[in-house]
Amino acid sequence: MPITLDDLELVRADPQHDTSQFDCSDDDLNDFVKTDCLDYQKHNLSHTRLAKYRGEVIAFVTLLADSIILETKEKKIWLPFYTKIVHFPALKIGRLAVHKDYQRQGVGYALLFYCLGIAHRINEELHVGCRFITVDAYEASVSWYLKQGFLLNEQGKKHRSMRLDILEDENANKTIE
Amino acid sequence: MARPIEATPVVKGKDAEVFLRRMERVVVTEKRMAFLKTAALQSKKAERDK
After folding, report:
1. CA-CA distance, A85 to A74, in Å (whole number)?
2. Per the CB < 8 Å rule, is A165 touching B5?
3. ipTM score of the complex?
4. Share of chain A above pLDDT 90, in %
5. How far is A132 from chain B (nearest CA, A)?
6. What proportion of chain B, given as a percentage, has pLDDT over 70?
7. What confidence tens digit (pLDDT) does each residue in A6-19 have?
8. What is the number of CB-based contacts under 8 A between chain A and chain B?
9. Given an 8 Å threshold on Cβ–Cβ distance, is B26 in contact with A12?
10. Which of A3, A110, A112, B37 is 20 to 30 A from A60 via CA?
11. DSSP three-state, residue A173
């Protein structure tokens, strides 16, 4: 049975929640949740939610405000409504990791679903525009994000910056190129 | 110390054209809005330290 968002408790990163045993098999991500995330949070650079399952921290997601910026000359091109817009508002997944013992059980999708919910709440409850979810995906995770509907921001380069249009229904918009 | 969170790159040239064309053509469906609404409700429910 996959673990869903319903099975998780999401709490704000705080010293009272023990992350010392967290291990997603990536030292950088482990270090971030064990030491750096509280500094980022203190300075409003990002906020981290710990996902607890049966009382244990099994995953985390770090979010921050972002935008997709078009090069200045691109704003002249053909999309009348957007001619003056060069910054497209987004919610960025700065970090997302799942404990190695809980990988491939749906936890990553549950956290992505959580992020979609946050993006919708930013629009509908806070009345702040947010059209995209962005992520800097690890090379090994790019295929997973593609499967979830993300697109690479720079198709021509082997870059990991990706985006998901929260309004785009992947089934209804299959023919869009 | 973990590596810093990187900035999203500026999108330009062909990538920007594809970006705008795709954004313009998105058809927002009731199904998608219902999906987002469910995600919003569940995200709120999952937050135990509100």
Report:
1. 10
2. no
3. 0.91
4. 72
5. 10
6. 96
7. 999 999 999 999 99
8. 162
9. no
10. B37
11. coil
